[in-house]
Amino acid sequence: MIKLEVKLPDRxxxxxxxxxPISENGGNIYGVLHYHDKKVNDLVxxxxxxxxxxxxxxxxxxxxxxxxxxxxxxxxxxxxDIEKRNIIAIMTGHVFDTDILDTIKRLASKNVNVSELHAxxxxxxxxxxxxxxxxxxxxxxxxxxxxxxxxxxxxxxxxLICS
Length: 163
Hints:
The protein is of the alpha+beta class. It is built from 4 helices and 8 strands, in the order βαββαββαββαβ. Strands 2-3-1-4 form a 4-stranded antiparallel beta sheet, covered by helices on one side. Strands 6-7-5-8 form a 4-stranded antiparallel beta sheet, with helices on one face. β2 (28-34) and β3 form a beta hairpin. The chain is globular.
């Protein structure tokens, strides 16, 4: 697992320019976090987590770095061999009305990525169910993550189920 952090110009198509070399070199993308709220001088911090085939890992990673350099995308940091640790969480209640984006940003501030989100949404006034696949770093225990999720759910009056 690789975590790549860059700063992209805030203009249409720049995220595609980051993703394309990863995809073309066999990268399997697990999550992309685009921090518009931390934009400085028209540059938006972006964190992307992905895997590469182990057989061609070194060559593909070198090609990705080379392509990003050609596109003038500066790599802020790159962490290789991040252990993929994940859980599934289901939140039930007024998940959208209590700002699901806020929940995702709060998790991201703890270096926790929501790699998948599945929801059944009918109406703002009705209860929703949201399933999240959450990837968390080695530096965090599963119990700490669940405690953080419980804290958020308690504040927002949501019911939580974790795998």
